[in-house]
Amino acid sequence: MMQSARPPVRHTVTRDDVARYANVSSAVVSYVVNGGPRPVAASTATRVRQAIKVLGYRPNATARALRTGSTRLLGLVVPEIGNPLFAELAVAIEAVAAERGYEVLLTNSHSDPARERRLVSTLIARQVDGLLAWTMLTGSEVSLLPLDDVPTVLLNTFNAGPGFDTVGVDAEAGASLGTQHLIDHGHERIALVIGGGSASHLEARERGWTAATRSAGLGDGPIARDDFTRAGGYRAGLRLFSSPHPPGAAFVSSDMQATGVLRALDELGLRVPHDVALVSFDGTEESEYTLPRLTVVRQPVRAMAAAAVDRVLAISADSPKEHSLLAPRLVIGGSCGCHGRVTKPEGYERPAGRVS
Amino acid sequence: MMQSARPPVRHTVTRDDVARYANVSSAVVSYVVNGGPRPVAASTATRVRQAIKVLGYRPNATARALRTGSTRLLGLVVPEIGNPLFAELAVAIEAVAAERGYEVLLTNSHSDPARERRLVSTLIARQVDGLLAWTMLTGSEVSLLPLDDVPTVLLNTFNAGPGFDTVGVDAEAGASLGTQHLIDHGHERIALVIGGGSASHLEARERGWTAATRSAGLGDGPIARDDFTRAGGYRAGLRLFSSPHPPGAAFVSSDMQATGVLRALDELGLRVPHDVALVSFDGTEESEYTLPRLTVVRQPVRAMAAAAVDRVLAISADSPKEHSLLAPRLVIGGSCGCHGRVTKPEGYERPAGRVS
DNA sequence: ATGAAAGCGCTAACAT
DNA sequence: ATGTTAGCGCTTTCAT
Lengths: 356, 356
Fold this sequence. Notes:
six-stranded mixed beta sheet; elongated; DNA-binding
């Protein structure tokens, strides 16, 4: 005769304990806890709730997930939480997901393809109900991910082929918009500072910058490629503006790099926007507090989050793939030359409070 | 005769399918997948692995967790992922946890006590193996959390009473260190910019600032309290430095606020460090890219992460509570007056790469 | 309105 | 070395 296995004790009070205490069946406890699917007499429900309180019963979401087949968990993969853009996106996605009754398992790929593949695997193993990924992989690499039958939305990935749902910002239009603004200021030699990789959203920014300068009849400006970090922007800025014939303006493809460029310019003794005009891509809160405040092409982070979460929750086996492309918008700061002086940050409110 | 319930189909290929395909028992598949606890013949193992590959089998972590009683998941609650300090801490905790074979469920309380309580509840419901929380609650409120029997480490919480394990930085010593540095520069009236709340780590910073000025025989400087954000620092800075008798130096209790103070000073036409000297608390990467670079009391983020994760994994029912207090250190930047000019950011490397 | 019980996918003790 | 099987805590169908 077989003996049963003895798994480690964890969650001492179970639904059965509550049932026993309240003198009902475990099914009734479920009905009370979940508000259905069967009705429960008011007096019984009260007794059950009382038992739950007295015993300190806490439902086990793991068991529930195993039984129902749904974890109400969304997996999110971003390249770097330390980048304010992704932090803001993660916060927004978390907020939208919470409104829909989902929680988010947030993971950080450190822009490492191998790590990204591993993260996707563990998220799937954890049975997430949906997956949102800002991938660093190329289109063909993405196709190799073990995405099986998990509803997936790729963020800002435009070369993944038709097999994936995508939500992204029109980076090409955004880069054109920002570059055009510098052209409107009369600049004729406009550099591009951009990440070193070949992710599709980077290529799009490069295309937008090229398109704007060319359609204005200007020659292509210099390109400085470096890491998608503050340090990368700093190095790119030093190279670009200490060259023999430095450009008078630059479109920087991310706020983090722009922060680095600002430091480089400061060290080189160049003033913004007087000597060099700058427009950057992202429009994170950090960009509102640089000196001067950056003029930016702002990513519609909230809208992206909402579109992505709603889409991933709507995906079913036979739904056709969708591709949303959101429009970024230009937000004028003090780095482009529109204002003689720095503009107020958005969070500004009349000074109030104590100074003791 | 009873019929069985029919949960929704999800994960089509199960461990039993693999067993059937490889012509072994499901136990053997487990042994192969988990590398134990019983040995498996090499040829059998190969057959099983082949079956796994062919069928595209992916283990179900939910079922595993239910069975073993361990999710290998750590819950983390921080006040605001948008704050670079917490982003850096989250990344560090994630990295340490990964080394120990754990993943992190990261949640954001938005500094809202009610939300924080809810997060703790859902993390416990999700059966995290441990909980790390940078709480905004007071000591007595923390005691009311349904922490039951989940190993918990509180981060930077010093008034939670002896019932909790804690890991934190010595904020009082840090604030003294930073303030003392301004005193060493000859400042006699040193303001404090600090958050409006009453969290214990804020009180500690205030104590440290007070202790340093008093032991130097100086009178207490002005205090500006405002939100723990860039906007809060900006408002505090405007109030503080547009007052009739503005201080010549300030110790700012967070990098984010310091960023706002820098903007306020810029708008008021005051130069740093020439007119006003600044030292701030945190030492995030962002503080290395402000203009000028901030002189900071740097929080030992990596060390905190390691201490917290190791501690939470070591906690058992009968282990006595521990309280680690880590030492922050002063990192000189360009805002205190040590250098005539801005110092190089840490990420600095000799310029290299293309400028096309 | 309530109860009984099967079974989600997995692990591991016990049997062979 | 491999097989059999109970049961983790929960939901839900079917029966009463």
